[in-house]
Amino acid sequence: MKRIGVLALQGGFAAHAQRLEELGHVAFEARTARDVDTAEGLVLPGGESSAQLLLIERFGLEGSIRALVEGGRPVLATCAGLILVAAEVTSPRQRSFALMDVDVTRNAYGRQRDSFEARADGEGPPLVFIRAPRIVRVGPGVEVLATLGGEPIVVRQNNVTAATFHPELTRDTRVHRGVFGGCVDEHARELVSPRVAM
Fold this sequence. Notes:
This protein is an alpha/beta fold. It is built from six helices and twelve strands.
């Protein structure tokens, strides 16, 4: 069982907590530097990345987020979270933390009205895309864990895993399990691993 913080400044954080609790973890809303400092893992959820950047700066959280990543604790960044950790962001250009060697384009799958559901290539998880970014470059140290139509949608670099979609909006917990492990249903098949695509 891990104590996992879900960044709760803006966006859809409650559903992430529910998925984590289904896996047997203790999930809590992280809003302060101390919250991040004491977390054994962190979720950077979807929402509005530019608003999240402003709030992270306002509450002085960037240093704690960087220290958590540098300390090797697991991080899951989804949708807007992916934008925050990317090396470069376009459409429009935006500052990011460059915690992962990928470039992304914002809202590349369409606006809110263009939201859609799909299934990842192979036997991958169900997908929910809402104003989703697209990964347009993957660096040599980044592993692609899942694709849609051949395009990367889940990537991992060291202890940071990022997804273009919203895994928390389905009952499928394999993305969260692949990042944080699980304390319940341990005999379930691990579908996210360093060598097995989802």
